[in-house]
Amino acid sequence: MKVLVINCGSSSLKYQLIDSESEEVLAKGLCERIGIDGRLVYQKEGCEKEITNAPMPTHKEGIQMVLDALVNDKTGAIKDLSEINAIGHRVVHGGEKFSGSVIVNDDMIQALEECTDLAPLHNPANLIGIRVCQELMPGVPMVGVFDTAFHQTMPPKAYLYGLPYEYYEKYGVRRYGFHGTSHSYVSKELARFLGLDINNCKLIVCHLGNGASVSAVMNGKCVDTSMGMTPLEGLVMGTRSGDIDPAIIEFISKKENLDLEGVMEVLNKKSGVYGLSKGLSSDFRDLGDAAENGNKYAAEALEVFSYHVLKTIGAYAAAMNGVDAIAFTAGIGENDPLVREMVVKNLGYLGVTLDEEKNKVRGKDTKISTEDSKVAVCVIPTNEELAICRETVALLK
Ligand code: AMP
Questions:
Q1: Which CA distances in Å does 83 have to 140, 164, 282, 301?
Q2: Contacts with 107 (C-beta within 8 Å, 6 or more apart), sequence order
Q3: Residue 91: what pLDDT?
Q4: Strands 102-103, 86-91: parallel, antiparallel or unpaired by DSSP?
Q5: pLDDT score for 11
Q6: 283: Cα separation from own chain's centroid
Q7: What pTM does this model have?
Q8: Roughly what angle, to the nearest 10 degrees, separates helices 296-319 and 284-292?
Q9: Distance (Å, whole) CA 202 – CA 216
Q10: pLDDT over 90 (residue 255)
Q11: C-alpha–C-alpha distance, residues 101 and 359, integer Å
């Protein structure tokens, strides 16, 4: 089967065309600056990237350009659109309605609309992607794969907040967790890589990218995760604050004369390592370079980030009463040996020893702990698009 994987954001759209049998990526790219001006990046397997600037007032023009590029006479990856057998959509928030992937139909779309309150920035874009594909590719089966679904196995003690219970009943205020497709994929890959039985082991997955979250996976099921009702909770991130004392919101609002929206903007876009480094960068490459050149704020930002990852690993080892293996994944987890070292060197109490030479690795399945380490620590690259492709095929079979 050839599966088109679509990940629709508010002004961008990432796509991959994957052959599900060989798991080969036939073409991939993105549409950027949708609604602003418009740029298509397209790359056929084994070829150079092509960049086309063209107006994209809405996602519809973007997706149409992707489809045209896929069947282009010279650089297309397929001859005819009828070769696309299915479309897999990444959907951010499935609330409590979706504990797994689902085939897209009217009921699914309506249920998704009802979750929009919970992810006002993301779900509307995902819905647009689904509707545009229905219009441009009528009759092609589609599947929605939710960021929240993998975490639906969490027990109430992990997902309930210490708030009036009615808020949960009336409004669905609870922990949902995100990056679920990645946590699910990486936990399975970690078990496979180490020869562990996924149904009989305790794993911790650290998905450290611009957004960052940790999950505790026991016997293949998520039992806790650091992101909450929204992706703002948990670790200190690129520009997001992660956990703070909730009273800070009122305090800063008064001191800085900001309304609620203004404070939320600070917590989402001006905080995290970006805010800690006094606006230097949210990119760990910049922060690493600056810290090496003596920038105290960049060095502290890296320490705060790593410390929060370290504390969360400790919490999840406690939550599962032990841990067999830990995985690092996503942009930072796969590529930043310094952050991994800052975390793993402090896990001695779990019997973990870091292999400093192996920790230099970037972006491939590697055990970075020593052979005698009691808990194995690995780098496991995530692949959310492949995970979505696999889910899509599994559901349609
Ligand atoms: P993601 O959200 O998973 O795409 O991760 C993006 C983040 O990964 C970037 O903002 C960088 O901070 C980080 N990153 C990517 N490549 C590297 C690298 N070579 N070294 C350190 N950090 C990196």
A1: 10, 52, 40, 48
A2: none
A3: 96
A4: unpaired
A5: 87
A6: 16
A7: 0.95
A8: 120
A9: 7
A10: yes
A11: 35
Q: What are phi and psi of 384, to 5 degrees?
A: -65, -35
Separation of CA 285 and ligand 1 centre (Å): 7
Q: For the packed helices 296-319 and 337-344, what is the interaxial angle rounded to 10 degrees?
A: 50
Radius of gyration of the chain (CA): 21
**Cβ proximity of 376 and 66 under 8 Å:** no
Tally the C-alpha atoms within 13 A of residue 344's C-alpha that lie toward its C-beta: 31
Output the ligand 1 site: residues, CB below 6 A.
209-210, 238, 282-285, 330-332, 335-336
Amino acid letter, 350: L
- Are 226 and 216 in contact by the 8 Å Cβ rule? The answer is no
Amino acid identity for residue 347 in this structure: L
Among residues 37, 107, 117, 147, the one annotated as catalytic is 147
For residue 153, CA distances in Å to 67, 117, 139, 225 come to: 37, 22, 33, 11
Residues 6+ apart with CB under 8 A from 139: none
Quick check: is 73 catalytic?
no
